[in-house]
Design goal:
heterodimer, A: about 550 residues, 12 helices, rod-shaped, B: alpha/beta, Rossmann fold, seven-stranded mixed sheet
Chain lengths: ~550, ~325
């Protein structure tokens, strides 16, 4: 990407270089013209001096070339730079004197003579010198009355300004002519006679002119041109830097703002377009920052709403789950109550009958009669007891009473629970419960039942032995958590969500009421029971119960 | 004794005659030479033979009458410098020293100033005398042009004030006149629009350029501007563009200019005679300077006025007004 500064510098530099070159060319032409004009003025003064010299006129009149020497010497004294290339003086009949400079190689035959000049000026444009200027115009030439000047180039390449003047025998007073013009000459019979005595012709060489021009070129024009170009380029560079630097500064600020730093402002106080731009830019940044802040505020509110919605949704789901579970529990409880009532009496009758049967049949007879009979009797008794227990569990489940709460020590509840459960020796148990733990307001009997269920489940999950860790600790300021961690087989992920449902069990001889009952009891205590399990590594149940208000 | 009485009676009538004769002789011998000696002599150098010069000389001769000034000789220099010099050398060698010299025309004036430093020289009919440095203790003269104030007064009367007056001039010849005119123009409420030329060929283009900007052209006697060629081309251009031309020469009016204010040449001669008399009777210690012509004439071209559409009737009744064509 080409920068604005580079473009500006390039464009203006090209412009400056062009202007510099044009200036130099113009100056060169002007200088050349000036030099040529100066040469022509010098030439005209010389030729007029010669043409008006009395001695020249006398020499021409009397055809005595010797009288020309003094006049020519005077001319050469004036020509200090030796610019006179050739000189030719002739009367009306013949050339009386012809001289050429020794320094300049010129063939006098190439220089047009009087006749050719007259012929030339008769038919073509002529340049007539008068009072320091050249008359140019096309007219019919009658007789040379003034001075002519033209440029001549010889075969050797030498260039001359050729001056040609007529020498008159009588000099008139031009102001008197003018007076006659102004005052009226209609009554005057005046005949001016101006006999032509001869002609003087002189060529001024251009070599000095070229030298002077070259000197001016190298001493003035070239330094001036270089000065214009380099000065212009330097000025352009500084100007471009001056113009572009605020833009660069603003570009950096814009980049910062794009990265999110909306506190950046442009500090340019100039009273020009860039100053206006910076003011507008700052205004825009302020607006952007205000919009951004408002958006952040709205986003924060939205996040809060989402979070609130999520929590509400979660609570709703939990409530729904609780409701579903409660309904299930209610249905199961109702069923259990009905089944329990219906089965308890027959089972009691079976148990009584079995007791009477065992009492009326002598033991020796039984032993003698059949070993098999005794076995069947034990099975009946055992299964009857088991059935009664199931019935009792069902009745217990359905008759779960509203908890009667009182302050209780969780450590005592844990120890009581552990004492009521027979833990196999191959299972090692560790209890972490400090005495300083706050009391919880619970129905200690029901909570103990929950803990017993959890300890029994843990033991059943570790048939090959393991470690049971019970840890009670404060959970924030309002709750106390008790975790039961075993290193058993764990619970598969696909059944975790059903583990607290009634009648769901992973055990072959389980009824699926223990965890459901425990969950129901904890909920009634306004607590939580949570499950963390990893299949193959173990399971942790966490029971969170509220701390008594006085303990908080 | 008686006889004597008759003799004396016989000559009684002759004595007064003798007495009268003696007195006449005495007067003649003693007073006439004095009278002759008191008469002042003037020689006149005339640059060339033109009517205006002759008219001025005629006026001078008239002015010299009854002023005890006699014109000794009139020399004609034939408009030629060399010949003029030769004539003046001849006059000096002659030995007769005039009391004053009247130089008519610029050639005569410049040569007289150059060769006579001990004789009062009075010049006249010198156009643009400022250019020739005709100053010195023994030289004075009469301008051949009306003053710029007089010219502009006439111009204002014809055109009214607040006009743009154009002037074409060669700065080498008439810069001083134009500079002075610039000041005078402001006094008259004119704006002088100047155009400089250095060559005769520039005059026509300068004229074409200046005419749209001006209300009138003031044609001053500038030998670069007024030439034979321009005299033929200027009237055509100004008549085409209907620009009135104001000049200092009646020749210009005859050529097509609207109006000119110029000196009465004959009266200029008379004024020169008065100046000579003043110089000779009461020689001043310093130069008298250059006098303005006392009598002017106004030349109007009625044909040009008609062409341009300017009413000059109110000015035709003025004295010393010459109408052309008559």
């Amino acid at each position: 990407m080409t920068s604005i500064r580079a473009k500006l510098v390039l464009f203006v530099s090209i412009l400056v270089v062009t202007i510099g070159i044009l200036c130099c060319v113009f100056l060169l032409n002007h200088t050349k013209r000036q030099q040529e004009d100066a040469l022509k003025k010098f030439g005209i003064s010389l030729i007029m001096l010669l043409a008006q010299d009395n001695e020249v006129a006398y020499a021409l009149h009397s055809a005595q070339p010797a009288f020309l020497d003094a006049a020519i010497n005077r001319l050469r004294d004036i020509d200090m730079e030796e610019e006179i290339g050739y000189l030719r003086i002739s009367n009306t009949r013949t050339v009386m004197r012809e001289e050429k400079s020794q320094r300049i190689n010129v063939n006098m035959e190439e220089i047009p003579t009087k006749k050719s000049l007259l012929k030339h000026h008769t038919a073509t444009r002529r340049s007539q010198w008068s009072r320091g200027g050249i008359h140019t115009g096309t007219s019919t030439f009658s007789f040379p009355s003034a001075l002519f000047c033209e440029r001549i180039k010889t075969s050797s390449g030498a260039v001359f300004c050729d001056f040609f003047a007529t020498v008159f025998g009588k000099k008139t007073f031009s102001e008197e002519e003018f007076a006659a013009q102004i005052l009226g000459e209609d009554k005057v019979s005046k005949e001016e006679s101006r006999p032509v005595l001869g002609f003087v012709q002189m060529g001024l060489s251009h070599h000095k002119l070229n030298e002077r021009t070259r000197k001016i070129i190298w001493q003035s024009i070239v330094p001036m041109g270089l000065g214009i170009v380099f000065g212009g380029i330097c000025m352009t560079f500084f100007l471009a830097t001056y113009l572009v630097s605020p833009l660069r500064y603003m570009a950096n600020i814009t980049l910062d703002i794009a990265r999110g730093n909306l506190t950046r402002t442009v500090d340019i106080r100039s009273r020009d377009e860039i100053g206006h731009l910076s003011v507008n830019f700052n205004e825009m940044t302020r607006s952007l920052k205000a919009s951004h802040d408002e958006k952040e505020k709205i986003m924060e509110q939205l996040r809060d709403h989402v979070k609130s919605l999520y929590n509400t949704n979660k609570e709703l789901m939990e409530t729904q789950e609780r409701l579903v579970r409660s309904e299930k529990l209610a249905a199961v409880g109702k069923l259990a109550s009905g089944v329990g009532h219906e089965l308890r009496n027959p089972l009691g009758a079976i148990k009584n009958a079995l007791f009477l049967l065992k009492k009326n049949v002598p033991a020796a007879h039984v032993q003698s009669e059949s070993q098999k009979f005794n076995t069947f009797m034990e099975i009946i008794e055992k299964e009857t007891e088991r059935s009664i227990k199931i019935v009792n569990d069902l009745l217990g489940f359905s008759r779960t009473a509203k908890p009667t709460v009182s302050a209780a020590n969780v450590r005592a509840i844990i120890e009581s629970s552990l004492s009521r459960v027979r833990i196999p020796e191959k299972i090692k148990k560790i209890v972490y419960a400090e005495d300083s733990l706050p009391s919880i307001v619970v129905d200690a009997t029901q909570i103990e039942q929950v803990f017993i269920n959890l300890i029994q489940n843990a033991c059943e999950a570790m048939p090959m032995g393991g470690l049971l860790t019970i840890r009670a600790q404060r959970e924030g300021s309002a709750a106390l958590s008790t975790t039961f961690t075993d290193t058993g087989c764990g619970i598969p992920d696909n059944v975790k969500h059903m583990i607290f449902d009634p009648l769901f069990t992973t055990k072959s001889n389980g009824l699926g009421l223990g965890l459901a009952l425990s969950h129901s009891i904890i909920q009634r205590h306004e607590g939580h029971i949570e499950l963390e399990s990893q299949e193959g590594k173990g399971t942790t149940f966490t029971v969170k119960l509220p701390i008594a208000n006085t303990q908080r | 004794m008686k006889q004597k009485f008759p003799q004396s009676e016989r000559y009684h009538g002759v004595v007064p005659l003798w007495w009268f004769a003696a007195v006449f002789l005495f007067q003649t011998i003693f007073f006439v030479p004095r009278l002759i000696a008191a008469e002042k002599t003037v020689i006149i150098f005339r640059s060339q033979q033109i009517a205006a010069y002759n008219e001025a000389i005629l006026g001078f001769e008239e002015g010299c009458k009854e002023k005890n000034i006699s014109i000794k000789t009139i020399y004609d220099l034939h408009g030629d410098t060399e010949e003029g010099k030769r004539i003046i050398q001849m006059v000096r060698k002659d030995g007769t020293k005039p009391d004053a010299i009247l130089a008519v025309g610029v050639l005569a004036a410049t040569l007289a100033k150059e060769h006579f430093s001990d004789i009062p020289v009075i010049f006249c009919m010198v156009i643009n005398h400022d250019r020739f440095n005709l100053q010195g203790a023994n030289i004075t003269g009469i301008s051949s042009e009306a003053s710029i104030e007089d010219q502009f007064a006439v111009l204002k009367e014809i055109l009214g004030p607040h006009k743009n007056i154009g002037v074409i001039y060669d700065p080498l010849k008439t810069r001083k006149i134009v500079a002075q005119a610039n000041i005078v123009a402001k006094q008259f409420g004119f704006n002088l629009v100047k155009s400089e030329v250095v060559l005769e060929k520039e005059v026509v283009s300068a004229l074409k350029n200046i005419t749209p900007k001006i209300d009138a052209l003031w044609l001053i006697p500038d030998s670069t501007v007024i030439t034979k060629n321009t005299l033929s081309s200027i009237p055509k251009i100004i008549q085409d563009r209907r620009v009135p031309v104001f000049s200092t020469s009646d020749v210009m009016v005859k050529a097509g200019a609207l109006v000119s204010v110029s000196p009465d040449y004959k009266h200029t001669g008379i004024q020169a005679a008065q100046l000579v008399q003043r110089l000779l009777t009461d020689p001043p210690s310093t130069s008298l300077g250059i006098q303005q012509p006392k009598k002017l004439k106004l030349t109007l071209n009625t044909q040009t006025a008609k062409t341009i559409g300017i009413n000059l009737l109110f000015i035709q009744s003025y004295p010393d007004v010459v109408l052309y064509p008559q």
